[in-house]
Amino acid sequence: MSERNLFLRFIGTGLELIVSGFLAILYTETQNTGRGFDPNPVFWKAFIIIHVALLILIPLLAKGRTLGMLVTNLTIHSNSGKPPNILQIFLRAVLGFGPVILTQGMWYWVSFVTGLMGSKGRGWSELISYTTIKWKEPPLE
Questions:
Q1: In-domain check, residue 141
Q2: Which residues cross the membrane (predicted)?
């Protein structure tokens, strides 16, 4: 189970949601004029836009790693053991996280179940981009 890194991936996803929510709260507060302001739709629009930006832009800039992977010290490798090439990074960012965005997060659970059932623990974004998530530095045992 430790080779799959499922716990760290789950923690990383939670951290991404918390960061997106915090940034959306900050944006919502800057839009408050005080008169007849309804913060709920502003918050959800900001949250969705910020989360989409984090899911697409950060993997393109950080060699396929998401914000959660950067925080939890996970990295991504090609199935051949080499660092991912630009096509794999693009596939992971767009086709890997695109369905999550289009289904409003429900595809994340499909990916999580795929990771649980597979022998290597690879989720949807790893399957589509021929990559594997590993520890950046293996833990001491």
A1: no
A2: 7-27, 42-62, 89-110
Classify residue 52: in a domain, yes or no: yes
SS3 state at 131: strand
The count of domains in the chain is 1
**Closest to 90 in 3D by CA, of 49, 53, 56:** 56
For residue 51, the Cα-to-chain-centroid distance in whole angstroms is 9
pLDDT score of 1 = 40
Burial 89-128 (b: 16+ CB within 10 A, else e): bbbbbbebbbbbbeeeeebbeebbebbeeeeebbbbbbbb
- Name the token pair of 70: 């950067």
DSSP string, 18-65: HHHHHHHHHHHHHT--SSS--HHHHHHHHHHHHHHHHHHHHHHHTTT-
Enclosing domain of residue 48: 2-135
Q: How many CB atoms lie within 10 A of CB 11?
A: 14
- 140 assigned to some structural domain: no
